[in-house]
Structure formats: C-alpha cells, structure tokens
C-alpha cells in the first residue's frame, strides 16, 4: 500500500501537502487515529497464573488422595501430600510469573521525538503524537517513528535489519513500485523502528501505532499462544496413565475384598494405601528441581532458560531454524579480497577490529604503493568512523564504508589522521542513479578527486590505471580483465566496489571531476560467518538435528553462506519469500522438509515455515535477534534469542537466551538439554521401580494373607525418602559418552520407553517377590506383625538405594561410569540410609512409624537380598551391550 502510487497521489490520498498539516488538523487526526503507540494486551493475573499450576491430572489425583487420607484420619499423610503439591505449584509459579513484556518493549523502539513539518515550519514533536499525513524530515542517525512513503531521498540509506534481516542498509528512492513488490524490497517506504544510516530525506506518514509494520508484529505476538512443551504433555500423559492404573487396581482390590467377606470400610482403607503407594506425589517437585539444577549448569554454558520445561524441548529438538545476520555471521562487513596492480590479495582479521594483514599467495604484503593508494582512496571517499569501546572495535556510520576504514587501519592508515593533511572541500554524494560517490580533498600535493562505487561505473569514468608504479592507459584488454575479476569476486558472494582517483584543477566543479580518472583497484567485502559455526552445524548434523537458514538477505548471498558452513547440501531447495507466497499451504508442507535456505523473507514467512515443520511432527527451535524474529520465536517449540545483539522483544518472546550470541553454544545447550531429559527419564524409571514394588507387595499381601505388609505411613515414608534426595542426585549425572551421536527422541515417544518400563516392572517385581518371601517365612516363624512390617519396610528402602545406582545410566554399567563419579548420589544414599536407621531405632520415630529395632542377623538377610537389584540390572546391561556389539 502506497508504494505503488506516485508521491503526489499519496499526498492527495492522505489529504496533506509538503507544507505539512496544521496544528488543528493534527489534533483532529490524533483523536481519529489515536496515539502513535503499540497497545498492550491484558495480562493474566497472578492468582490465575498460580492456580493454573494445579491443572495437571497427577496433581488433581494427589489432592483427592490427600482429602481421602484426611477423611480417614491420616492427617500426617494428608499434610505431607498437600505440602508437596503446594511446593511444586510455587516453583512453577515463580518461574512463569514474568509476564510477556514484548509489546512494551516494542514501544521502546519508537523514537521519543520526531522532526516534522507543521503549519509550514519544521518542529520537533513527541513521536506518540504523530498522525497519518504528517511530513517527516529524515536525517542520518534518526530512528524512524512511523511507517511513511518517501517524498525525497538524497543518498538516503536505512538500516532495516531489525525488521527484515537485511544485513546491508537499504538504499532508498522515491520511484513508484509494482503493487506485488514484497515489503523488504519497497525502497520508497520507511518503517517504524528502522534507522537512517546515511543521507537525508522527506516522507509522509502513512501509518501509526498498531497499523505500522511493528504494530502488526505486536498483533502477531498477541495472537500466538505458546504451546505446552513436550515434557509438560508427557508428564500429564504419565499422570493420567498412572492415575487410571491406580484407580483400576484400587477398584479391583476393593471389589475382590468385599466379595471375600472383608469389611467395605477396611477395604477402602487398603485402597487408599494402594493409591498412596502407586502415586509418586514427589514427582512434580523432583522434576522441577531436576530442571532447575540443569538450568544452573546451562547458564555456565552460556544458555539462559526462561521457562523450566523448555529444557526438555531443547533436548528433543530435531530442527533449528536460524537467522543468518548476526547469528551465523558476525554482522560486520569485512573486506576479504583486494584486487590491485593486477594481483588478488587476501585480507585477514575479524569484524571491525583494525587487526589483520594483506597477503599475496600466502606471503604478507609489506610496503606497496598500489595498495596504499587504494586504501587512501577508500578512506578519504568515506563518511564512516572507527571507534574502540572497552577494547572492542566498532564503526559509526554505514557498515560498507566502515569496512573500508577498517581495511585502511590494518595498514596503519587512520582516516582522522589522513584527513588532517587531505581536507575535504567538496563532494558529489552517492545516489542509486549514479552508483558512485566522489570527494575533493586538498593536500600539499594539490587537489585530488577520490571516487568509489559500482565497478562498471567507476571503470566508465577511467581512462588510466595505476599499474606497475605508473599511471598507464586503461586498454580494452585490461578493462575486460578487471570486469572478469569483478564477476569472479561476486560469485564468491563478495560485494565488490571499484576505486579511482585523479588530480584536478583548483577551480573545478565537483561533478566535472568524475572523468578521465585513474583506476586504483577493487575491494570485495562481505559479512563473514562466525568461525565456530561450521563445526557447530556439523555437530548438530551428527546429533540428527537439521539446520535451516531463514534470512532477509538476498538469495545468492544466503545460498553461498549456507553452502560454505554446511547448511545447504546437494539436492536441497532454496526458496525466496516471493516463491513461498506462490505456494499453497498443502503444497508447501509437502516440500518443507527439502528446503534448507529461505531468502528475502519477512515475519509472516518465518511463522509459516515454523508452523509447517511443526505440522510434520518436528520439534522446532528458532534462533533470532531482531524484532522481526519475535513471532516465530514465540511460535516455535524452542525460541532461542541472542543475548548481546538481540532486541529485548526477541528475548521476551523466546524460551532461551544465548548469553554469548554464539551459535556454537546451541550445541552445548542441546547436549545439556538431552542430558537433563535422560536424567529425568532415569529417575522416573527409578521411582517406578519403587511404586510398582510397593503396589505388588500390598496387593498380594492383602489378597493372599489378608494383612498389610507395610502400613500407609511407612508407604508414604518410602515414597518421600526414595523420591526425594536420590532422584535429585541422579539429575546431576553427567552426559553419557556418545550422547550427541544419538538421534533426537521422537516427539511421540512417551516419557518412559518400553524398555525402561519393562526394567522397572522387572526390578519392582524382584523387590516384591523378595519381600513377600520374607513375609511368608516370617509368618511361618511366628514373628509379630510389627517386626515383619519393619523387615519388609527396610528391605524395600535398601533395595531402592541399590537401584539408584542402576539408573545413573540406562545402558552403561555403574562400574564403567565409576562408583564415586557422582558424589551427590553417594551423599543422598547415605543420608537416606541414616534416615531409615532413625525410623527404626529412634524411639519417637518408632512410635510414629510403628517399627521395632532390627538385629545384626536381620541386616545380614536384608543387605544381600537388597543388592540383587543392582546385580541383576548389571547382568542385563552386560548382555544388552554384548548383543549390540
């Protein structure tokens, strides 16, 4: 809209003129359109957020169990269960209390004041009071306060990287464009939140507030609901499965007992005991603490997770959609090649650091008059500045010009010092029509013109070339050789510029200086990839994770970078935003798995890609740093924002922030996420062994002997001490060898695999068989019931301590890992054993848990029986490894 109309027609449509609106008309329009601000959405109240923590099916079952326990007089059981539930809720609430601040932060990108024409005069007004029809004056350094159609553009360049992802400032014009021109290519428009890097201009405001491009992004953020993570879904599935199984078992026992003549109330009591045995009431808290401990480790690896359950999502991720500019690349234009004196030189150094050198065939170039002349030309025909902040080099002005200043500095040519002896007295500014810029600089040697621009344009102004230490005739053969070199450099995705100079008369008109010039050479620059990115992407590939580039940059540049760093592979597809628009949803979904590069895209495209991949069942991570990335970051399963260069909007829309902006840190984060998921699964399997064993013991004891082998308070004690410290210690287990060589777990895979479930069932059955064997033997020996219950109670606890070693890894032997390589687990097991000894030998606790002291002969039976849980699992792991080999 407006980009396909002439400037006069736009002014007429908006009922304004180049003399601006009157103050009265501006006030009327402010009432009609509202302030130039982004609206906030209503936030979820703290109370609702807290209550939402208790929607889990598992939590609801625990609350019901607590109420039944209280009803039956088991107040201690009820209080312990409710306290555990409350603790889990508080931990979740604290993590999610941070409200979505995306729209507030979008507002902060709006310029506080703007220079406009009102009542025929240039005046500064608060940007919130701007209205459609206002005439906006644009100057270098200004941040654009509203969407506008350009009326004048004098060498105007605007940095739109925060909106489109385009790494190079866009040269603007006032030409009419075709209606179908996509947003990133609308060179006659200026958009909110972008900034002027060069030149000046005038524009008429066409949209304010929520009607701007930024406003639409804010609307997209508001429309997107952050989906529940796979871990949350799996925990709920696990809770529903466990709850349903518990209710079936309880109903079966109660009905069967009543048929056998037992008192219905007594059977209900046993049913509650079974429910307490089956339900891992500490699981939500343990999972939360396990995630929190993992998050602390991730911070040390430069990954800050904003929502705990997102950790598991990262571990399951199988596609990473990444922006190019600033994420895969350094976001710093750098001169990499120089063509001078008929020779190609390579340039070393990173970004805007003035450190590096020039090499010819691997040998450093020392003093060279041709290179010196070229670098001086690039530094003088330039408006950029080089600064150092806290020891880090940076530039002020246009990135392309900044790259030239840095290149000169690498040879000790500093623009401020150079200009002291080469005072600028005139210039012909750059324009899209001319495609070149020229300055006139006075020195002791006379007045010189220095030009830079498109190579073919510069060559067209030249009749000579500085070659072999002399100014020689620029022959057709030499001209062709230069143009061939330009094409060769362009094919390497370099942005090529030509340079020329000429000594001119003192009274020359600047425009007349651009003729009969001397060709000085070429410089090729680009935004280079980060050094560590190639290795990081290769590691992702080994881990079964595809990397997809989604960028606002041009197709050729995006393709070349993707091929260089290993994202693009033979047979992959490259799509532009325009090509993507031409595809129907179904057609695109059929081919989305084949596309590795998307170029010239804008926010809606990124959302479309993420959503199509999610429909295919992928767990999608999206990296980004700009405002344009925020909707896709929020829609992705795992949004990863850049901590240093990232906008606050992108950070708030994300699930995780990279504190060092290093793509390679994603690999570390993925490994940590996988390890956290592995540890969660392992301690859930460990806990299942406990609950399965206790359920079988109670069930068979009631049905076969009509007694409770362990009472309800002992069952709760077993749950609390075995589901407490050991699982938390298991969550600290280091990654298994080869963890990053494994493929990502499928999103459809349950929280506990069939293999782990069978192992838990087997170990639980082993504990039950041993306990019931002790029960049978003790009854034959005529032991009193409290002694029998104490024996079984202790056997179960000690068996589970041996079982804890089993689940440090589901496939590696504890002896290959090293018994003492997880000291927190050693301390947890020792602490649990001491607590169990206290429950047996401390008089007050004996009364509470109805236990009696055990003799040394009793321990002589318990320890060997309990150790079989570790021995049996070690044998199974050995046989599995042998079969696998």
UniProtKB/TrEMBL annotation:
Q: Which UniProt keywords apply?
A: ATP-binding, Calcium, Calcium transport, Hydrolase, Ion transport, Membrane, Nucleotide-binding, Translocase, Transmembrane, Transmembrane helix, Transport
Spans through the membrane: 49-72, 78-97, 241-262, 268-293, 683-708, 714-735, 756-779, 785-805, 817-841, 861-879
The UniProt entry, under Pfam families, shows: Cation_ATPase, Cation_ATPase_C, Cation_ATPase_N, E1-E2_ATPase
What is the membrane topology listed in the Swiss-Prot or TrEMBL record? Multi-pass membrane protein
For the keyword Transmembrane helix, the answer is yes
Annotated GO molecular function terms are: ATP binding; ATP hydrolysis activity; P-type calcium transporter activity
EC numbers, comma separated = 7.2.2.10
Where is this protein found?
A: Endomembrane system
Gene Ontology CC: one annotated term: membrane
What positions does the domain Cation-transporting P-type ATPase N-terminal occupy? 1-74
Which top-level group of life is the source organism from?
Answer: Archaea
Per its UniProt record, what InterPro entries does this chain match? Answer: ATPase_P-typ_cation-transptr_C (IPR006068), ATPase_P-typ_cation-transptr_N (IPR004014), ATPase_P-typ_cyto_dom_N (IPR023299), ATPase_P-typ_P_site (IPR018303), ATPase_P-typ_TM_dom_sf (IPR023298), ATPase_P-typ_transduc_dom_A_sf (IPR008250), ATPase_P-type_domA (IPR059000), HAD-like_sf (IPR036412)
Its name, as the record gives it, is P-type Ca(2+) transporter
Q: Which organism is it from?
A: Methanosarcina mazei (strain ATCC BAA-159 / DSM 3647 / Goe1 / Go1 / JCM 11833 / OCM 88)
């Amino acid at each position: 809209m407006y980009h396909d109309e002439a400037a006069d027609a736009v002014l007429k449509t908006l009922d304004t003129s180049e003399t601006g609106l009157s103050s009265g008309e501006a006030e009327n329009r402010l009432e009609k359109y509202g302030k130039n601000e982004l609206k906030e959405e209503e936030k979820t109240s703290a109370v609702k957020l807290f209550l939402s923590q208790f929607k889990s099916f598992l939590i609801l079952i625990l609350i019901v169990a607590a109420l039944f326990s209280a009803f039956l007089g088991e107040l201690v059981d009820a209080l312990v269960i409710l306290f555990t539930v409350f603790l889990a809720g508080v931990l979740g609430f604290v993590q999610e209390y941070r409200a979505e601040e995306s729209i507030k932060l979008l507002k902060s990108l709006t310029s506080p004041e703007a220079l406009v024409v009102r009542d025929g005069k240039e005046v500064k007004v608060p940007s919130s009071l701007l209205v459609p029809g206002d005439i906006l004056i644009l100057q270098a350094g200004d941040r654009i306060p509203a969407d506008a159609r350009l009326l004048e553009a004098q060498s105007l360049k605007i940095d739109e990287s925060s909106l489109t992802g385009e790494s190079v400032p866009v040269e603007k014009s006032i030409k009419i464009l075709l209606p179908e021109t996509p947003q990133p290519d609308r060179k006659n428009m200026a958009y909110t939140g972008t900034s002027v890097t060069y030149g000046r201009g005038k524009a008429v405001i066409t949209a304010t507030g929520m009607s701007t491009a930024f406003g639409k992004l804010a609307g997209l953020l508001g429309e997107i609901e952050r989906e529940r993570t796979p871990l949350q879904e799996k925990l709920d599935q696990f809770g529903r499965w466990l709850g349903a199984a518990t209710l079936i078992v309880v109903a079966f026992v109660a009905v069967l007992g009543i048929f056998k003549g037992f008192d219905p109330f007594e059977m209900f009591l046993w049913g509650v005991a079974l429910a307490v045995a089956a339900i891992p009431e500490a699981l939500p808290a343990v999972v939360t603490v396990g995630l929190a401990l993992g998050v602390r480790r991730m911070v040390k690896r430069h990954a800050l997770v904003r929502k705990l359950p997102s950790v598991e999502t990262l571990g399951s991720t199988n596609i990473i959609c990444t922006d190019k500019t600033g994420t895969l690349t350094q976001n710093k234009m750098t001169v990499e090649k120089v063509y001078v004196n008929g020779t190609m030189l390579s340039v070393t150094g990173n970004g805007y650091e003035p450190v590096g050198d020039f090499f010819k065939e691997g040998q450093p170039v020392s003093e060279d008059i041709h290179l010196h002349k070229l670098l001086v030309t690039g530094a003088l025909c330039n408006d950029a500045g080089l600064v150092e902040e806290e020891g880090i080099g940076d530039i002020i002005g246009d990135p392309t010009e900044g790259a030239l200043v840095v290149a000169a500095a690498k040879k000790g040519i500093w623009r401020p010092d150079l200009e002291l002896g080469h005072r600028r007295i005139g210039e012909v500014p750059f324009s899209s029509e001319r495609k070149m810029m020229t300055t006139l600089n006075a020195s002791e040697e006379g007045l010189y013109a220095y030009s830079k621009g498109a190579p073919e344009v510069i060559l067209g102004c030249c009749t000579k070339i500085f070659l072999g230490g002399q100014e020689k005739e620029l022959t057709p053969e030499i001209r062709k050789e230069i143009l061939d070199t330009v094409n060769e450099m362009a094919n390497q995705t370099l942005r090529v510029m030509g340079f020329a100079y000429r000594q001119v008369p003192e009274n020359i008109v600047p425009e007349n200086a651009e003729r009969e010039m001397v060709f000085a050479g070429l410089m090729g620059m680009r935004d280079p990839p980060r050094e560590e990115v190639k290795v990081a992407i290769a590691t992702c590939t080994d881990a079964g994770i595809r990397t997809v580039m989604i960028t606002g940059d041009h197709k050729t540049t995006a393709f070349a970078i993707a091929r260089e760093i290993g994202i693009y592979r033979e047979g992959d597809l490259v799509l532009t935003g325009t090509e993507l628009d031409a595809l129907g949803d179904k057609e695109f979904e059929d081919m989305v798995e084949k596309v590795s590069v998307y170029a010239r895209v804008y926010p809606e495209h990124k959302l479309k890609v993420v959503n199509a991949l999610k429909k295919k069942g992928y767990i999608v991570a999206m990296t980004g740093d700009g405002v344009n990335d925020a909707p896709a970051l929020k829609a992705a399963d795992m949004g990863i924002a850049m901590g240093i260069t990232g906008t606050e909007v992108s950070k708030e829309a994300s699930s995780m922030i990279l504190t060092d902006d290093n793509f390679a840190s994603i690999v570390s984060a993925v490994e940590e996420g996988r390890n956290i998921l592995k540890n969660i699964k392992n301690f859930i399997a460990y806990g299942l062994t406990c609950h399965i064993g206790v359920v079988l013991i109670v069930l068979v004891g009631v049905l076969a002997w009509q007694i409770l082998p362990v009472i309800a308070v002992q069952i709760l004690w077993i749950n609390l001490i075995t589901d407490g410290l050991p699982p938390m210690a298991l969550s600290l287990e280091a990654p298994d060898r080869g963890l990053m060589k494994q493929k990502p777990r499928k999103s459809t895979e349950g929280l506990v695999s069939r293999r782990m479930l069978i192992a838990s069932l087997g170990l639980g059955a082993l504990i039950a068989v041993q306990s019931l064997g002790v029960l049978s033997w003790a009854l034959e020996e005529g032991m009193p019931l409290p002694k029998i219950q104490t024996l079984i109670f202790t056997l179960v606890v000690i068996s589970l301590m041996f079982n804890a070693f089993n689940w440090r890894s589901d496939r590696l032997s504890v002896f290959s890992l090293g018994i003492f390589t997880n000291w927190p687990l050693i301390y947890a097991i020792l602490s649990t054993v001491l607590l169990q000894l206290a429950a047996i030998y401390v008089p007050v606790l004996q009364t509470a848990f109805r236990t009696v002291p055990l003799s040394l002969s009793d321990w002589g039976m318990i320890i060997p029986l309990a150790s079989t849980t570790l021995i049996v699992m070690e044998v199974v792991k050995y046989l599995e490894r042998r079969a696998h080999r």
